[in-house]
Amino acid sequence: MSDRRLLRSVPFDTTAKLARLNWVFVLMICALAAVGYAALYSVDGGAPRPYAETQALRFALGLVLMLGVALVDIRFIARLAWPTYAAALALLVAVERFGHVGKGAQRWITIAGFDLQPSELMKVALVLALAAWFHRASWERVGQPLFLLVPLVAIAVPAALILKEPNLGTAVITTVVGLSVLFAAGVRWWMFAVPLLPLPLIARIAYGHLHGYQKARIETFLHPERDPLGAGYNIIQSKIALGSGGMWGQGYLHGTQAHLDFLPEKQTDFIFTIVGEEFGFMGALMVLLLLALIIAAGMLIGLRCRHQFGRLVAFGVTVNFFMYVFVNLAMVMGVIPVGGVPLPLVSYGGSALIAVMLGFGLLLSADLHRDAEFPADAGAL
Amino acid sequence: MRREARRSGVFTRRALLALGGQATLLGLLGARLYQVQVAEGGRYATLARQNSVSLRMIAPVRGRIVDRFGTVLADNKKNWRALLIAERAGNVNRTLDGFSRIVPLAPRERARIRRDVVRNRRFIPVLVRDFLTWEQMAAIEVAAPDLPGIVVDVGDTRVYPFGPDLAHLVGYVAPPTPADVQRDPTLALPGMRVGRSGVERFRERSLRGTAGAVQMEVNAYGRVIRELARQDGVPGDAVGLTIDAALQQVAVNRLGGESASAVLLDCRNGEVLAMASTPSFDPGLFDTGVSAAQWRAWVTNERAPLINKATVGVYAPGSTFKMAVALAGLRAGAITTTTHFFCPGYLKLGNRLFYCWKHGGHGSIDLHGAIEQSCDVFFYHTALLTGIDRIAETAHRFGLGVRLDIDLPLQADGLVPTRAWSHRHGRPWVLGNTAISGIGQGYVQVTPLQLATYAARLATGRAVQPHLTRTVGSTVLPGGKAEDWPLLDLPEPLLDAVRQGMFSVVNNPRGTAWAQRLPPSLGVHMAGKTGSAQVADVSRVERARGVFHTSKLPWKLRPNALFVAFAPFAAPRYAAAVVVAHGNEGAEAAAPIVHDLMVAALTRDPAGRAVPPGGVAARAGHGGGTGAA
Question: Which residues on chain B are in Cβ contact (under 8 Å) with A140?
Answer without folding.
Answer: 3
